[in-house]
TrEMBL record:
CDD domains: PseudoU_synth_EcTruA (cd02570)
Domain Pseudouridine synthase I TruA alpha/beta: 149-242
Protein name: tRNA pseudouridine synthase A
UniProt cross-references to SUPFAM superfamilies, sorted A to Z: Pseudouridine synthase
Membrane-spanning residues: none
Subunit structure: Homodimer.
GO molecular function: tRNA pseudouridine(38-40) synthase activity
Protein's organism: Chitinophaga hostae
């Protein structure tokens, strides 16, 4: 058996999330269907990162095993089978024990706000036409890096054993009418990025003081976080692996 990692991107608007669910339309189910169709055998993949309903990904990974040879036009063929809102970007041969989820060293997300009505941003951002204190947003983003326990920003009904995350980057950028939160960590909890964004926006709107924000983080109580920001503004941007792990499969001309 050979193990392969595949790199994908997708728009999440039409899906009930990434991970396969019974009686639900998911990104992973479409990918497994495409792989199984091409290989003419059942392929069950394992995803690196779960995203919620409506959340997008510029980059996500899955792995699967097969003893069958890859079609010389593998990428072209899979993309022809996949729906138009899911794309296969690459395929990599990896060691047999490599796991797309557990081998990941870190993940990066962006959450995008746009401040003026724009029909082209409707499914790629959160329309937020309110005055924001950008300096306050930046201060809260810096405060986040001081903490490691993010129980406050994890939705309930999760099965994780620890709420400890190492935040590597946390900052806001402003580009014209787009305001973007950028965050990188070794791992994320269920709903964590949207909880961080929603709670920071309360500070940026003057509805929560900096001291109250700190107390919310330290409370380890999810009722003190605001998870109400919509999913379409959230993008999984990058999944980082150890250098040298991903060896692209070389094909002839696609």
């Amino acid at each position: 058996m050979n193990r392969y990692f595949i790199e994908v991107g997708y728009k999440g608007a039409q899906y009930s999330g990434f991970q396969v669910q019974e009686n639900a339309h998911t990104v992973q189910a479409e990918i497994d269907r495409a792989l199984s169709t091409l290989f003419r055998e059942t392929i069950v993949s394992t995803g690196s990162s779960r995203t919620d309903a409506g959340v997008n990904a510029a980059q996500n990974f899955l792995h699967f095993d097969t003893a069958l040879p890859l079609h010389p036009q593998f990428i072209y063929k899979i993309n022809a089978i996949l729906p138009e809102d899911v794309v296969l970007k690459g395929i990599y041969q990896v060691p047999a024990d490599a796991n797309s989820r557990f081998a990941a060293l870190g993940r990066s997300y962006e959450y995008t706000l746009y401040t003026h009505k724009d029909p082209f941003m409707k499914d790629r951002g959160y329309f937020f036409p309110y005055k924001l204190d950008i300096a306050a947003l930046q201060e809260t983003a810096e405060i986040i890096k001081e903490y490691s326990d993010f129980t406050t920003f994890s939705k309930r009904n999760t099965q994780v054993k620890t709420y400890i995350c190492k935040i590597e980057e946390s900052f806001w950028t402003v580009d014209g009418e787009r305001i973007v939160y950028n965050v990188t960590a070794n791992r994320f909890l269920r709903g964590m990025v949207r909880g961080l964004v929603g709670t920071m926006l309360r500070v940026g709107r003057g509805k929560l003081s900096m001291d109250q924000f700190r107390k919310a983080v330290e409370s380890r109580d999810c009722t003190n976080a605001d998870f109400a920001v919509p999913p379409q503004g959230l993008f999984l941007m990058k999944v980082r692996y150890p250098e040298g792990l991903l060896q692209p499969v070389r094909f002839g001309r696609q």
